[in-house]
Design goal:
flavin adenine dinucleotide binding, binds 3-acetylpyridine adenine dinucleotide, five-stranded parallel sheet, FAD-bind_Monooxygenase_sf, NADP binding, Flavin_mOase-like, alpha/beta, 485 residues
């Protein structure tokens, strides 16, 4: 039997997907990997986002690694700190931390002489395989509102929450009503001196009660692990076949989602004027679908107001809307989203023949089956372009992508392959097939969202997550340019 190669693998990012990749390498008996992490703790988005009300709107039972169920989840959809602590525990339990270089930002990665040369402030180091696990929404997007920098009080982005500021005595101006703005509003409504929610575009809200698990449930989950696995499968089936299908094809599920959102709005908001202002002029799920338990209740509490008039400018003591009204505020929170196009970069990634990722992605990020890019051998991406993100469990998507990367890593380790990258032709075909399927998706039914790329097409996967899993579970070597020894 040929001796296995000792492979050096570099993983960029110690968030949910980077930790997942590290665990998969360990399971395959590969201990020669390094995780580069620019921050000083694991957790990625769950480390950076700490805003009040932060939780995950995907059921926790399903938002967990399949190889590390958690019987102790406190709620159906658990709060952010608990999710962060879950990822911290996985990193500790599995001994992944000793592989992590904290406080080390990768500045560049160059493919040279069949290896990846990873550059940090400490110098360069070579690896056989490079995995990017840098997340999707990492770079906060600050709004371009005139006078924002003249505001006299504190002001920060939702992903950079300043916990030194006390909230109960503040009149808060909250800009943005995406998934983040809604969670913050639901938490702070009625608990602070004032809350003005500046809504530029109304959102559909799907009712989503968030039950607390009893001691009995947790004990039962611990005692019979099969229950946890059943919970995982149940929510996987439901989310993939309900939200997953509704997003990508006109079907019964899409109609049902729309109906549920309408009924929720109709019965939760009594005031016809407020209801009118909260009614979107596009289909449910066109923007990322909001799932929230008590958003509508929170915004009808005393001291809370939804301002749907456009913002004109900010001045030292508050926000002035187009009708000339001054909305006095002591604190401004910018829940204005993220730069989705900062994908993987700003680090410089250079593949074969000096091709940079910036050049390869001049017309927008594209990849082969969301994981690999032509001209970049032995590079695999977790949460790469056109991953089926939306309202899915990104944990499961990352696992599928990590398993796919492992398939190639095993080929390289066993000596069957030296280097592999998808062909330009296969990648082009795949992207053309996706483009042809896009008009069926709900994301193209007439709204603006961060899902849409430069060309106006969604940068998401236009089929169900089930298809994505199938595509990744059957690697096609014909679609690759494979170099052997
Ligand atoms: O950001 P967004 P987010 N003036 O881009 C408004 C994930 N996530 O942080 O709709 C006024 O969705 C903007 O208005 P409009 C999830 O993938 C997951 O909320 O563009 N308003 C919008 O209302 C999500 O999709 C969870 O007209 C301005 C808001 O700001 C992603 O993160 C929880 C403005 C931005 O909404 C991003 O969500 C939270 C301006 N100049 C987030 N600029 C889970 O539970 C922007 N807006 C898993």
């Amino acid at each position: 039997m040929a001796e296995k190669r000792i492979l050096k693998v570099a993983i960029i990012g110690a968030g949910m997907s980077g930790l997942c990749m590290a665990a998969k390498l360990q399971d395959a008996g590969i201990d020669t990997f390094t995780v580069f992490e620019q921050a000083d703790e694991v957790g990625g988005t769950w480390r950076d986002n700490t805003y009040p009300g932060l939780s995950c709107d995907v059921p926790s039972r399903f938002y967990s690694y399949s190889f590390r169920p958690n019987p102790g989840w406190s709620r159906f959809m658990s709060p952010g700190p608990e999710i962060h602590s879950y990822f911290q525990q996985v990193a500790t339990e599995r001994g992944i931390r000793r592989h992590i270089r904290f406080g080390t930002e990768v500045r560049s990665a160059r493919y040279r002489d069949g290896q990846w040369c990873v550059g940090t402030d400490d110098g360069e180091e070579v690896f056989d395989v490079l995995i990017t696990a840098t997340g999707v929404l990492r770079v906060p997007r600050y709004p371009d509102i005139p006078g924002l920098d003249t505001f006299a009080g504190p002001s920060f982005h939702s992903a950079r929450w300043d916990h030194s500021i006390s909230l109960p005595d503040k009149r808060i101006g909250l800009i943005g009503t995406g998934s983040t703005g809604v969670q913050i509003s639901a938490e702070l409504g009625g608990k602070v001196r004032g809350l003005k929610i500046f809504q530029r575009t109304a959102q559909w809200v799907m009712p989503s009660p968030n039950v607390r698990y009893s001691r009995f449930t947790k004990a039962a989950m611990r005692r019979w692990p099969v229950l946890n696995r059943l919970g995982y499968r149940f929510w996987q089936f439901y989310i993939e076949n309900m939200l997953g299908r509704a997003a990508v094809e006109p079907c019964f599920q899409r109609g049902l989602m729309q109906w549920l959102c309408r009924v929720n709005l109709r019965f939760s908001v009594r005031d016809p004027d407020l209801r009118r202002r909260l009614t979107p002029d596009y289909q449910a799920m066109c923007k990322r679908q909001i799932l929230a338990g008590h958003y509508y209740q929170a915004i009808q509490k005393p001291g809370v107001e939804v301002v749907s008039e456009a913002i004109d400018h900010v001045q030292p003591n508050g926000v002035v809307t187009a009708d000339g009204t001054l909305h006095v505020a002591d604190l401004l929170v910018l829940a204005t989203g993220f730069d989705a196009r900062a994908y993987v970069r700003p680090m410089e990634i250079v593949g074969e023949n000096g091709l940079t990722l910036d050049e390869a992605w001049e017309d927008g990020p594209r990849a082969y089956r969301s994981v690999a890019v032509p001209g970049f051998p032995n590079l695999f991406m977790l949460m790469g372009p056109h991953s089926p993100i939306g309202n899915q469990s990104l944990v499961m998507i990352a696992e599928n992508q990590a398993d796919y990367a492992m398939w190639w890593i095993n080929q390289i380790r066993d000596g069957r392959v030296v280097a592999a990258a998808p062909t330009e032709a296969a990648t082009k075909n795949y992207n053309e097939e996706m483009k042809a399927a896009m008009p069926q998706t709900v994301w193209m039914t007439g709204c603006k969202s961060w899902y849409l790329g430069k060309d106006g097409l969604p940068e998401l996967f236009p089929w169900t997550p089930i298809r994505h899993r199938e595509l990744l579970s059957t690697p096609r070597t014909d679609d690759y340019e494979v170099r052997t020894a």
